[in-house]
Amino acid sequence: MKPTKTSRRGEGPSRRPKPNAGKRIAFIGTGYVGLVSGTCFAHIGHTVICVDHNEKKIRALKRGIIPMYEPGLEALVHKNVREGRLRFTTDLKHAVRDSDIIFIAVNTPPRPDGKTDLSYVAEATRDIAETADGHKVVVDKSTVPVQTGIKVKETLNIYNPHGVDFDVVSNPEFLREGSAVQDFLKPDRIVVGVENERAEKIMREIYKPIRAPFIATDINSAELIKHASNSFLATKISFANALAAICELAGADVEQVTYGMGLDKRIGSAFLNAGIGYGGSCFPKDISGFIKIAEELGYDFHILKDVERINAEARQRFIKKLEDVLWVTKGKVIALWGLAFKPKTDDMRSAPSITVIERLRAEGATIRAYDPKAMEKAKEMLGTDRITYVENPYAAVDGADALVIVTEWDEFKNVRLKKIHTLMRHPLVLDGRNLFDPHMMEQQGFLYHSIGRPHNTHGRAANSV
Ligand SMILES: NC(=O)c1ccc[n+]([C@@H]2O[C@H](COP(=O)([O-])OP(=O)(O)OC[C@H]3O[C@@H](n4cnc5c(N)ncnc54)[C@H](O)[C@@H]3O)[C@@H](O)[C@H]2O)c1
């Protein structure tokens, strides 16, 4: 099928939906993607039922408690539940029978060998096949390797006691945690991989109120668009981190280099930030999944192997820098700002903070950590051995031998540096996100190390400021 591109001009997303104008939609998997997408589809007028096999999560949602932090989501969930367009259940059978379009938005974690674990997708697909009693459009929204749609179609046909007619669609999701609601309602593009015009028509209808370029392709191409997009973004990050390493060796400033590059419209400045490397629930697993499926298909995607290697090195170089400046880590108190893998989320999956904390603990340091939103999830994941979770950035640095900045929350950019300097036992700052100007930090009396930029060689004791 030839890709078709059109620009949509529908009602604005904030316009009040017409009652009963929408479709009946089910979401299997009520996580970051399922809950946001399901809620937004309800917001634009559809009747949505979100399913999850995690009973605790569904119980919480039924009581109005949102199981993750995502700006703007809580109010939107409450509004759409109140107005009768959004429900939650653990009963997949009921949800499937009650819907015309079923989205699969389950997790696709990495396997130890780097391949994508598709067992949750397979399980959801089988459950749909065994339950459906009439025509259904089955839409894969989870991020999956190319050719997964073919397997989904086969599975639907094999486990199909009622002889139901299924249309399979790939509809990858590009939302970013931290701005997920806005990203869903005002996306750069909507990508839909379809096997026939009937499915394309239905997908166009359900997205009608959202103004965005609508790209219809075959299923394999849609699946590849998602993997290719994430891999390209990760490549930009690793490129910036490789540049940072060269800048440190050559005595240049990576911020100036990437600024100069980014002004070129063909390059652009987004995702050219040097730092401690990418983490999170998507990039690491999507890059390794893409490498593996390419390998299976007979192509060695070496550029992506380098992207992974540079990312791991960026993190290790940061830890080495920290150990070098601390000299002896054992017995030191380290303040750590930022636990989530990026700002405006509480997601801790593959967060760089985990690697840093584990290494510091293994070396005998004590950590005092603060994050505006991820403390609860971090506590669940990392426990309390040699780490305390404190109320604010100032409590973290009180008496600390060093401050390590791992996540670039706005709150950190706006701290009172003079107070930080006074509170610290030793004014040593290791900034993994280049939040501050090195010259200004030197003037404030800090011994300041960042990524790919010149550093000063001595700080000033607090009482001499
Ligand atoms: N998180 C993101 O920013 C993002 C962005 C774009 C795409 N994606 C992709 O979307 C997919 C979902 O990601 P997520 O972050 O929402 O994951 P998540 O772990 O937050 O949510 C997945 C949910 O699916 C549920 N689940 C799994 N199998 C189930 C089944 N058989 N029946 C019912 N529920 C089931 C789990 O209990 C969980 O609540 C992944 O493939 C991911 O790569 C994620």
Helices and strands in order:
Elements: E1 4-7, E2 24-28, H1 32-43, E3 47-51, H2 55-62, H3 73-82, E4 86-89, H4 92-97, E5 101-104, H5 119-131, E6 136-140, H6 148-158, E7 166-170, H7 180-185, E8 190-194, H8 197-206, E9 213-217, H9 219-250, H10 254-262, H11 283-297, H12 302-326, E10 333-337, H13 352-362, E11 366-370, H14 375-382, E12 387-389, H15 393-397, E13 402-405, H16 410-413, H17 417-423, E14 428-431, H18 438-443, E15 447-449
Parallel strand pairs: 2-3, 2-5, 3-4, 5-6, 6-7, 8-9, 10-11, 10-13, 11-12, 13-14, 14-15
Antiparallel strand pairs: 1-9, 7-8
The structure holds nicotinamide-adenine-dinucleotide.
Question: What do you see in this structure?
Answer:
With 465 residues, the chain is an alpha/beta fold. Helix content is 43%, strand content 14%. It contains 18 helices and 15 strands. The strands form two sheets. A nine-stranded mixed sheet has the order 1-9-8-7-6-5-2-3-4, sandwiched between helices. It has a six-stranded parallel sheet with strand order 12-11-10-13-14-15. Helix 5 runs parallel beside helix 6 and helix 9 packs parallel to helix 12. The protein is globular, with a radius of gyration of 24 Å. It starts with a strand and ends in a 16-residue tail after the last strand.
